[in-house]
Amino acid sequence: MAAPSFLKIDPAIERWNRMREDAYKHFRFTPRTTRVAMYGFVLFPGAIYYLASQTHLTWSWAGKQKGEALAQS
């Protein structure tokens, strides 16, 4: 037989853990979650891509000596 457990189980903590572990089962796309998904998956990466494409080839670190400008002309 198993040894008796000296740990008391709190039903509230057990319910909270079960709710947290099963949260994906009860997920629904509401207007708020759709907005958050659009920000996270479309707008934020789009903004990073736009900034990266605007600054691409603006600076050149290859073969520069001390005192030379980094900006390409």
From TrEMBL:
Its main location: mitochondrion. Keywords: Electron transport, Membrane, Mitochondrion, Mitochondrion inner membrane, Respiratory chain, Transmembrane, Transmembrane helix, Transport. It comes from the Eukaryota. The keyword Electron transport applies. The chain crosses the membrane at residues 36-52. It is a single-pass membrane protein. GO terms for cellular component: mitochondrial inner membrane. InterPro entries: NADH_UbQ_OxRdtase_NDUFB4_su. It is found in: Mitochondrion inner membrane. Belongs to the complex I NDUFB4 subunit family. This is NADH dehydrogenase [ubiquinone] 1 beta subcomplex subunit 4.
